[in-house]
Structure formats: C-alpha cells, structure tokens
UniProtKB/TrEMBL annotation:
Residues 128-147 are annotated as: Disordered. GO terms for cellular component: nucleus. This is Mediator of RNA polymerase II transcription subunit 27. The lineage of its organism: Eukaryota, Metazoa, Ecdysozoa, Arthropoda, Hexapoda. The keyword Transcription applies. PANTHER family: 34 KDA TRANSCRIPTIONAL CO-ACTIVATOR-RELATED, MEDIATOR OF RNA POLYMERASE II TRANSCRIPTION SUBUNIT 27. Keywords: Nucleus, Transcription, Transcription regulation. Pfam families: Med27.
Length: 292
C-alpha cells in the first residue's frame, strides 16, 4: 500500500504544478513584472513552471513503475454501478461501503485472534474430567432417568407439601407430565423429560389445564413467565433431583400469592397485580417493578 500512496501523492503534486502553469498563462504579463523586460520575466517564470512540471512528471513515472501489476481484474460486483448514480444523496453510498469493508476486515482480524486464543484453552461443557471419564462409565444424564425413579422423587415432594397435590401422567410415552394443584390459589402443569423440566404452564384455580394454552388471567400469565426463569435457574445436569425439588419448593411459595404483601413497597397490589415474583433464595414476594 505504501507505493500506491506515494504514486497518488506524486500525481496530486503534478496536478497542482500543471494548474500553476495554466494560471500563469491565464494571468499573462502582470504589473509586478515591471516596465522593463517584463516579457522576458514572464517567459522566465513560465519556463520555471514548465521545468517543475517536467520534474513532477518524472516523479510520477518513477512511482508508477515501482507499482506491482495486480494479478487480475478487481471484482467490484454491484458497486461498479455507483459511478452511474447521478443523485447527490446516493453518491454517499461509496464512503459508507468503504467503512463497511473496513469493519468487515476488523471482524475477520478479531475472529482470527479469537480462534488462536480459544484453541489454546480446552473448553469443556462436561462436569467431569475427560481422563477419569475414560476409565469409568459416564453418569446417567438428567433426561434419561427410569420412570420408577421419577415417580419416587415426585412422591417424596408430594408428601413434603401437604397443601400441594401432585398427580403424574404419561400421555406422551415414558416422560411424565405433572398436574400440580396448590391449595385453591393456582394450578400448574409441568412437563418433564426424565428429571429435567422442559415446560411449565400456570393457570388459575378452576381453569382448563393443558400445555398449549395460556391463562386468561394476566396474573397467572406473569407467573408462567417467572416459572420459565425459575426452571432455567434451578436446572442442574449433575443434580437433577435437587433441581426438581428446588423448583417445586419455589412454586409452593405462591400459596400466599393473594395474602402476602411485597417486601419492597409493602403493598398488596401494584399495577393491579399482586406480588408475582418470588426470590430464588429467600422465596420472598416482590412485584415485577420492585424485584430489582
């Protein structure tokens, strides 16, 4: 790129010197040439300017000769049609296109650096060491658990909370679907894959319970959204039973949905809704606007 910049600079200087020649010819003999011998002074000035043009032309030829010939024609693509655009507003597209090319080059450069750095680190998504995993059998994943083990875990959770009734069905094969009734406050359907929670829908007490439709009440639609966040928060591939117990404990905390006030503002209602958020650690109730 340096020889190209040098050649462009030499051409710019040559154009300036040629412009000075034409300017001198346009002005002709001036008053500052004096009264005596002004024609000779004018010719002498013009000769100097022409000599300067000759020297600058040699510089351009030398700079151009130092350039290497491109291996082939440049692929301009659709950008070649920009030269035919006569609208003043669209002529600025070329400068924006140059900026986008520079941005793309930086992305390629940063990507290459990232690949070099990441290749030096053995990133693993497993909780076990690869050397020990080769010597022993891999542990059973959370989505591949026998139905008997799932029933045992759900039965123990059902006994843990007397005011929460949990029934198990398997309409889609071996995977369980839990129908949860929490006092007379709400009901929920929880779809499991092994011991991994995949989907949760919360509805009001007395509504038709299924996996495909939302509740007609805004309060339970909001609790459904928060249940999805809790489902992801408590997810643990290494301890799936603890993950399910933690989620069900969090869901059980909504038994005081319409009675406990918000721990932040102290009000029962905010924007016509009760506290629909429960803290993952303390299980304290908060409004959506007060949880942050």
């Amino acid at each position: 790129m340096e020889p190209l910049h040098t050649a462009l600079g030499a051409i710019k200087v040559l154009r300036c010197s040629v412009g000075q020649v034409f300017s001198c010819l346009a002005n002709g003999v001036r008053a500052d040439h004096g009264e005596e011998g002004r024609d000779a002074k004018f010719l002498s000035e013009l000769d100097e300017l022409l000599s300067s043009v000759t020297q600058h032309l040699r510089d351009v030829e030398q700079a151009v000769n130092s350039l290497s010939q491109p291996p082939g024609p440049f692929t301009l693509g659709n950008t070649s049609f920009l030269s035919q655009e006569c609208t003043q507003e669209r002529q600025a597209l070329y400068s924006q296109l140059v900026l986008s090319y520079k941005w793309t080059d930086k992305i390629h450069e940063f990507s290459n650096l990232s690949v070099a750095l990441l290749s030096q680190n053995s990133l693993k998504r497993s909780y076990t060491n690869s050397s020990t995993a080769k010597r022993r059998r891999a542990p059973t994943s959370s989505h591949n658990v026998p139905p008997q083990n799932v029933d045992t875990v759900i039965s123990s959770i059902d006994r843990q909370f007397p005011d929460m009734n949990i029934s198990v069905s398997r309409p889609f094969g071996a995977n369980a679907v839990l129908q949860v009734t929490l006092s007379r406050v709400l009901q929920a359907v929880v779809a499991l894959k092994g011991l991994m929670i995949e989907w949760v829908v919360v509805k009001g007490y007395g509504e038709t319970l299924d996996l495909w439709s939302e509740s007609r009440h805004k309060v339970f639609r909001k609790i459904t959204e928060n249940s999805h966040a809790a489902m992801l928060h408590f997810s643990s591939p290494t301890m799936p039973e603890l993950a399910v117990r933690s989620f069900m404990t969090w869901l059980h905390s909504f038994n005081t949905l319409f009675s406990d006030p918000c721990k932040r503002c102290g009000n029962h209602l905010h924007s016509a809704l009760p506290p629909t958020w429960r803290d993952f650690r303390s299980l304290e109730p908060f409004h959506e606007e007060c949880k942050h």
